[in-house]
Design goal:
Layout: H1 6-9, E1 15-20, H2 25-35, E2 38-41, H3 47-50, H4 60-71, E3 75-82, H5 102-120, E4 126-131, H6 147-152, H7 156-167, E5 172-177, H8 183-198, E6 205-208, E7 211-213, H9 219-230, E8 235-244, H10 260-279, E9 284-289, H11 323-331
Parallel strand pairs: 1-2, 1-9, 2-3, 3-4, 4-5, 5-6, 6-8, 7-8, 8-9
Length: about 325
């Protein structure tokens, strides 16, 4: 295995990032410092974890994330306050337990953003302002039916971007979503981006989550999606990359037996993806995996608990998987 690191090998292309948490630092700090030069918080800057109750803020985990990035000279991607998940019921209610008015929810959103901007706006480089606002069903309207939409109407997205830019003018603002390479989801995302731009939203980037499986990715679809988003003049980041060994439609237990052929398909898909990312490095600034190594991955718990997945670039013992050598060597040619 080459002694060259991922971050070093990809210096001329884009940053190499990982989504992580302070709880993982004791185990993953060495690996993060060696192979990565960008980090994202998994949950620590979402609305609920940062502001769990009306009169309660929990800054410590987010502060620890920022401190780690500062100490190690890392780029920081903040993530993601406006989401249908990651919130607490108090956000949607007034003091009497009734549904919050649009004015009250706007006030709370503004406060959340102002606190974020004052505390982190001078250090954070990128911010996933809005996460997963699109409905997956091609037969349904573009926007997902959420409390944000129900209370504030379709204008909540543009409003959120405008407030974010006001409180954190130095931070590049992103919309972030998954299944972005699938043509039917791509088309909806493009409609939303166009709508935001038409409304004057200061959207500057699109986050391609890239939660993938060895069963559901066509490399040509990935290329066409990148081209479609770049055509809007946006900067692109891969924000949550991992490759499941299971079919996302398969939720069976016990887990299907994993074969050498499945691991080989995963390796080849990673190699092919990094080839595409290098090809489009004029518009891609960051490639971030959702997790650091296989000893901690959300895919051990989703879509079902009780089956182990191996979706990341490093084994559970933190040793690089063999295909990383190819990914590094091809970057150095």
């Amino acid at each position: 295995m080459s002694e060259m690191t991922l971050a070093k090998a990809y210096e001329k292309y884009f940053k190499i990032g990982a989504a992580t948490s302070p709880a993982e630092f004791p185990a993953h700090a060495k690996l993060l410092k060696t192979h990565f030069n960008s980090i994202s918080p998994e949950n620590q800057m979402k609305f609920g974890p940062l502001h769990p109750a009306k009169d309660q803020w929990n800054f410590l985990p987010a502060d620890q994330m920022v401190a780690f990035a500062r100490e190690n000279g890392m780029v920081f991607r903040a993530h993601a306050p406006v989401w249908h998940g990651g919130t607490n019921p108090w956000i949607w209610q007034d003091d009497h337990g009734n549904n919050a008015s649009p004015e009250l929810l706007l006030e709370r959103l503004t406060e959340q953003f102002e606190v974020f901007g004052a505390r982190y706006g001078d250090f954070v480089q990128y911010w996933d302002v809005i996460n997963e606002a699109i409905d997956d069903d091609p037969a349904k309207p573009v926007l997902r039916d959420t409390k944000w939409l129900e209370i504030m109407g379709e204008g909540y997205l543009t409003t959120a971007f405008k407030i974010a830019k006001k409180v954190a003018p130095k931070v590049q603002l992103f919309y972030n979503d998954y299944n972005e390479w699938l043509p039917e989801k791509r088309d909806k995302i493009c409609k939303l981006i166009q709508k935001l731009q038409d409304e004057g939203a200061p959207i500057e980037g699109f986050g391609m989550q890239s939660h993938m499986s060895i069963y559901n990715v066509d490399i040509d679809d990935v290329k066409r999606a990148i081209e479609a988003y770049a055509a809007f003049g946006l900067r692109l980041h891969v924000t949550e990359l991992d490759i499941s060994l299971y079919d996302p439609k398969d939720r069976s237990l016990p887990a299907p037996i994993l074969t050498d052929e499945m691991f080989e398909r995963q390796a080849q898909l990673y190699i092919d993806l990094f080839r595409v990312y290098r090809e489009y490095s004029d518009v891609i600034d960051n490639v971030t995996t959702w997790g650091v190594a296989d000893d901690y991955t959300w895919l051990n718990y989703w879509p079902v608990q009780g089956r182990t997945n191996y979706p990341l670039l490093f084994y559970a013992d933190h040793y690089p998987k063999p295909f990383i050598e190819t990914i590094i060597e091809e970057a150095l040619k």
